[in-house]
Predict the 3D structure of the following.
Amino acid sequence: MTLRSVIRGSGSALPARAVSNAELATQIDTTDEWIVERTGIRNRYIAGEGETTATLATEAAQKALEAAGIAAADIDLIVLGTCSPDQTFPATATLVQHALGCRPGGIAFDVAAVCSGFLYGLATADALLRTGAAKRALVIGAETMSRLLDWEDRTTCVLFGDGAGAVVLEAVEVDAGDPRAPGILETRLHADGGQRDLLYMDGGPSTTGTVGKVRMKGREVFRHAVVNLASVLEEVLDAAGQTASDVDWVVPHQANARILDATARKLGLPPEKVVITVDRHANTSAASVPLAFDTAVRDGRIKPGDLVMFEAMGGGFTWGASLVRV
Ligand code: UT7
């Protein structure tokens, strides 16, 4: 027997207001055709008054707890990936812990790995669960990217949206010899700070004393994304002793439909195995993987027993992938 982190349930949340490409085109110099052709994005959700990263995260977490049939009081670890926290500190995870009514005293912290934040959070929670530091965890990706955008910069502002996704993980003893045993099988994370100028915020508490705005050299990010993602996917498959054809679903970071197509092609994965929600949600940074996962669980695509690959790449650069039997 071996201790594994098993996904017990998932949830997600979106702001009330949907914004189409056509609506954006009335405010900035862009077109629906350009956005759809270059990115696959048709719609995004934008947070309004009273909606913050913490409120979206809390709603997603509540739904994940309901799906798992686990009470907030039984959660002893919350790891939240975000680059758009409600405040510089305390960590948004602690706001969520309080809002959910979790017992005080558990572990709660944020991870800053931008679009890879959920993957970094999942790996961290998995490690803590397997050492026995905690028993039941919420791993959340939540963002209000709209508040970090330069709405005058059409090369970035059309790409992002707001939202949150969450999973409940539980440490469970499983039979390691059973190939159908559930849980997180293998995860690999990477970072390369040498590429930090390709995707970054042009401000921060310790430099400008401001939050700053998102800046990106899109074409170069695109090129790195396809190479890094294909390589980490192969690395995780090798580590788990699986091949691309064993995978039932790939749940990628939703940055650009063309990146998803190119990565799937490189690995020989049929496009119908790739969960795509970028058309509806745009790029929600750390929220995008759990949001896409929850969407595909709730619409019946991902079923118990499926082999699911999560993958993401973001500013830093940071990137990673995780293979999970759900
Ligand atoms: O989440 C982290 C990971 N992020 C990503 O993975 C993003 C990766 N990059 C991308 O998805 C793509 O590079 C973009 C969608 C950002 C851009 O697509 P592209 O095909 O690389 O276009 P480009 O940046 O080379 O721009 C092509 C043209 C330019 O015009 P000129 O110089 O050729 O005349 C831009 O000014 O498109 C123009 N353009 C726009 N036109 C209409 C840029 N943004 C827009 C816009 N509407 N919103």
Residues 30, 34, 38-39, 115, 154-155, 158-159, 199, 218-219, 221-222, 225, 255-256, 259, 283, 313-314 surround oxa(dethia)-CoA (CB under 6 Å). The mean pLDDT is 97.
